[in-house]
Amino acid sequence: MIKDNTHRLTPTEETTEDQVPPDPVKLWQLDESTLATKYRTDPEAGLSAAEAADRLQHDGRNELAVKRTSKFVQFIKQFNNSIIYILAAAAVLTFFMQRYSDSMVIGLVIIANAIIGYVQERQAGNALERIREMLISKNFVIRGGQKLEIDARDLVVGDLVNLEAGDAVPADMRLISADNFNVQESVLTGETNPVEKQEEPMSDDQLALADRKNMVYASTAVTSGSAFGIVTATAENTEIGHIQQSVSEVKQTSTPLMRNLNSLGLWLSVAIVVAAVLLFLLGMVTDIYSLPTLLIAVITMVVGSMPEGLPASTSVVLAMGTRQMTKKNVIVKSLPAVETLGAVDIVNTDKTGTLTKNEMTVTKVVTPDHQFDVTGVGYDAEGGVNFDGALKLAGQTVDWHSDKNMEWLVNIAGQTTDAELHFENNKWELTGEPTDGALTTLYRKMTGHDPEVAEIDSLPFDSAFRFSARLADLNGQRLLMVKGSPATVLRLTNQADQTSYWDDAMDDLTADGLRVVALAYQVVPATMTTIDAKAISGLELAGLVGIIDPPREEAAKAIAALRAADVQVKMITGDHPDTAMAIANKLMVTSFP
């Protein structure tokens, strides 16, 4: 169950004028005026400076509390070791026996061990803190009718925040305006693709966090578009704050290395003490030495046998590992954490954007009459279409206009995409989702120009029905154009008699490791102005496009290194199993030529 986003007053707390009331309703259901009333803000001018200052003083800064360990406690923890305990006991005993030089030497060894471990951990912790300070973001806020850029830590509930592409979302917000606005929410939902957002209220009584299209959450990132939102929760009341609280409640456990060292130290110490006691008893029975001399001899044996350098040498070795990790742009706060990497035996990784480049390119097109190869790499407009190699006219360059379905498919690809391509730094840069970028590139390759979308209405992609749709005027006709999952789109078409043809085409495309998207259309009355997802049926299927997302070379090398270290690598993806298998095979071939 998703926790409520705002603070709830306990029965003993008193509601005053400067407090924002608790949140008894579902924010995604509220309209703009209700939101403004609820959070006592102006959807045009935002909060006044005085009101914002009062709320900041009352609610605190918009930052997650970090549990800090005091320097003293961090230093004292260095003495938490069975070997150190016995050395300390020996130091105390020799002190009371007035063997001050022995006691001092033992004490210096103990302190030196502690200082080495403490200094190494403080250096790593300070580096992490400096990076944390560098990552503090700034955002544009409307206060008193003026647009101000302020530190994200100074945001308060009720603030009106302007978000643009590239911004980090600084707090949980309910959107009141959104223009082609997409947000990357993988840190909360695990979904790699950006989510298109809206400002309209949603009537559902229960919505999972990933389905709240009119809300954005702290720690996520804006990938495209712009929006305005009212802050509904800050700091620990945000969704990421709830996660932090849950993580803080997890019981701390020792790393495998520390468990082994503690076990070694304990049993070694026990063995040495037992041997010392037996030697002491033997000395007393034989009466060879006087009691003081015998006691000093036993203590000398204990101190000499103790591996007092073990904690120090362990700290030095771990510190060397930390420095090696730092050279690879990895900050390690706790020295023993370095060792846990060596205990990893399974790595679970996402496919899109991690194992692959997330640079989609259409390489295959299947229409009811033909199968085509699309030439050209990446987002460059260079390229064309040839007949598929399996056909009689293999390799021949063709006029795509000769296949009416191909012509429909190209136009649908251009009309249903929201991606834009810009030539910067001697290469094409994509603004939008990679799949849309592949369709935009296909349109540019075929026509030689960018698509001009005459949109009347659009239906964003939703995982509930697995397709998106656009209503537009094209060539004097009003068309409903749909793109999405082939299995879903096929059910909405009139291709029931060609199911086997499309199933075979799907198998061929996925076997090559391609992501498959179906494109369909329907001529609709000129009076139609809105799209009803539930009423869509009887579509004409223009065809399927196979989109490749090439594997990363560095990912293949990393997999090879992991497998050489006997670490299993598992892929997590929502793509077709055959597509995932093909990508896995390509990575394996690259890893082990």
Structure description:
The chain has 593 residues and is α+β, with helices and mostly antiparallel strands. It folds into 4 domains: 27-62 and 155-247, Distorted Sandwich (Calcium-transporting ATPase, cytoplasmic transduction domain A); 71-131 and 253-343, no CATH class; 346-354 and 553-591, no CATH class; 360-548, Calcium-transporting ATPase, cytoplasmic domain N. It has 18 helices and 19 strands. The protein has an 8-stranded antiparallel sheet with strand order 11-10-9-18-17-16-15-14. Strand 1 (138-143) and strand 2 form a beta hairpin. Helix 4 (82-96) runs antiparallel to helix 9, helix 16 runs parallel beside helix 18 and helix 17 packs across helix 18 (577-591). It is elongated, with a radius of gyration of 33 Å. The relative contact order is 0.09.
